[in-house]
C-alpha cells in the first residue's frame, strides 16, 4: 500500500465529481492499492482524523457491508465527506437517520418501517398507479418538444412514488422537491438554499403530519407508523420526522440520477436502446443502477482493530465503501466497462453491499426505472440528446442537474 499511487488526490472532492466519476483512478487502485489511504484536510472536512481508507474492490466492499460486528454506521455517519466543517452537532444529528444507526436500535426502527411501507405486497400495489403516472409524465414532456430530461422525466416519478409510499398530499410535492434538492445539492452553486434550513423545514412539516395522524388516524401509512397501538410498534415523533427526511433524500436523488444516467447510457449505446425497445428485459434496471452507481460511496468506522486485504485498520478509522469502483471490478463483472442491459447475473452493489443497511427501497427503485423507460419506449422512442449533461457538485454522489434532450 502506498499513498503516492494517486498523488494525494481526494476521491471525495466535490470539484472532481462536478467533472466526472474517477473510474480510471478506481481501476488503478483495484490493481495496485485496493485499500488506499485518502488524506482529507481537516479544514475542508468535518472529520479531524486525517482521512479514511478507500475500499475499491467488490469483495472488500461486500465483506464490510455484510459483517455483523466490527463496524459502525453511527460513529461517524455514512457520508464520507461534507464540504467544509459542518460541526460535530450536525454529525450527531445524522444518527437520527436510519442509514446512520447501529443495532439494536437500527434493527427496531428498520423493522417498523419495513412492515409499515416496504413489504413486497405494499410495493406491488403501487405498480399500476405508477405506470399511469409514468405515461402521464412522458406525455407532458413530449408536448414540450424539448427540455431538461432531469426535471421533466427523471425526477417526477421518484417524487410521486415517494408521495404514494408516505402519503404526502399532492399539493405539497413541489415544496418537498425543493427541500430535497437543497439538502443534497448544498455544495453545488446552483442550489442557493441553506441545507440545514431545508432539513429543518421538512422536519417541521413531517412532525406536524405525524402529530395530525396520531390525533386523527386515517388508516394510511403515516397512521400505521406513528400510532402507539399499531401491531408493528411505532415511531416516535422524532423518528417519524427523520424517516421522512431520509426517504426524501434517499428515494429521490438516487432514483432520479439512475434514470438520468440510464438515458445517457442509452444515448451512448444506441444498440442497447433498440434492444430495450424490442424486448424490455427485466435485467435492464439493475444494469442501469450498476452503470450509474448514483451513490459513489458510503462509509463505516472500525469498532476494533482489524485487517482488510492485508491492510491493518485501527479501531476508530473510517473506511469508504466505493460502490462505484466495486461495480466495475473486473474480478466480478465480465467486460465491466460494457453497458449491457441483458447482464445476468449482475451482483452489483449499487444498492449497497448487502447486510443490515441494504437499500430498503431497492425494489421500488427497480420498478420506477422499468416503468419510466417503458413509458419512454412507448411514447418517445426517438428521444435524442441536444447537449452534454451538467453534473452536480457533490463529493459522494454521481449526480446530474441538466440533460438537454429533444423528446420527439
Ligand atoms: C436507484 C435508486 C437507489 C439507489 C442507487 C440507492 C442506494 C442506496 C444505498 C447505497 C444505500 C446504503 C446501503 C448500505 O449502507 O449498505 C441505501 C440505503 C437506503 N435507501 Fe436507497 N437507493 C435507491 C433508492 C431508494 C428508494 C426509492 C428509497 C425509498 C423510497 C430508498 C431508501 C433507502 C433507505 C431508507 C436506506 C437506509 C436503509 C438502512 O440504513 O437500513 N432508496 N440506498
Helix content: 40-55%
Strand-residue proportion: 5-15%
Specify the CATH class: Mainly Alpha
Low-confidence sequence ranges: none
Overall tally of domains: 1
Q: H/E element string?
A: HHEEHEHHHHEHHHHHHHHEEEEHHEEEE
Look at the structure and name the CATH superfamily.
Cytochrome P450
What is the approximate shape? globular
Can you tell me the CATH architecture?
A: Orthogonal Bundle
Kindly report the average pLDDT value: 91
**Ligand catalogue:** protoporphyrin IX containing FE
The number of helical elements comes to: 17
Report strand order across the widest sheet: 1-2-8-5-3
List the topology elements:
Blueprint: H1 14-19, H2 23-32, E1 35-39, E2 51-55, H3 58-66, E3 71-72, H4 88-94, H5 105-117, H6 120-125, H7 127-144, E4 146-148, H8 149-154, H9 156-166, H10 173-184, H11 195-215, H12 221-226, H13 237-268, H14 270-279, H15 284-292, E5 297-302, E6 306-308, E7 311-313, E8 318-322, H16 323-326, H17 362-379, E9 384-385, E10 390-391, E11 400-402, E12 404-406
Parallel strand pairs: 2-8
Antiparallel strand pairs: 1-2, 3-5, 4-12, 5-8, 6-7, 9-12, 10-11
The structure holds protoporphyrin IX containing FE.
Protoporphyrin IX containing FE binds next to helix 9, helix 13 and helix 17.
